[in-house]
Design goal:
About 30% of the residues lie in helices and about 20% in strands. With about 120 residues, the chain is an alpha+beta fold. It has one domain: Alpha-Beta Plaits (2-Layer Sandwich), CATH 3.30.70.270. A three-stranded antiparallel beta sheet has the order 1-5-4. The chain is elongated, with a radius of gyration of 18 Å. The chain starts with 15 loop residues before the first helix and ends with a helix. The model has no long low-confidence stretch (mean pLDDT about 95).
């Protein structure tokens, strides 16, 4: 089990309380789930050897961030935070939790625009 050899680093995640506090009366909420989000984060090639496994006598290695890796939530949260910071420079309001993005729009028509823009 690789996780027992990893150093766990605490990190700040969005809380339900902070999400609730960001919602304004009349907001239209749009939820976006990033499908297989971790698999979009590449692993440094020199680290492939640490992410090998055997299945049916075949050897494999991850080349992208695997689900179940103890450091994966922190890594993905940091990547998504950088993207969210870029989007927050626009009028779009959003909250992120792991691979879920919540858009907060003042109307249905603006929600459609925000969703297409994101």
């Amino acid at each position: 089990d690789l996780n027992r050899f990893l150093v766990y680093r605490k990190f700040k995640m969005t809380t339900l309380q902070s999400i609730l506090l960001s919602i304004r009366w009349g907001d239209v909420l749009t939820s976006i789930d990033l499908t297989e989000a971790y698999l979009h984060i590449p692993i440094r090639p020199s680290h492939y050897k640490f992410l090998r496994f055997c299945y049916n006598d075949q050897h494999y290695e991850y080349v992208a961030l695997p689900f179940g890796l103890a450091s994966a939530p922190r890594t993905f949260t940091k990547v998504l935070a950088a993207l969210a910071a870029f989007i927050r420079d626009t009028p779009i309001r959003l909250q992120c939790y792991l691979d879920d993005i919540l858009l907060l729009s003042p109307s249905s028509s603006q929600a459609n625009i925000d969703t297409q823009s994101t």
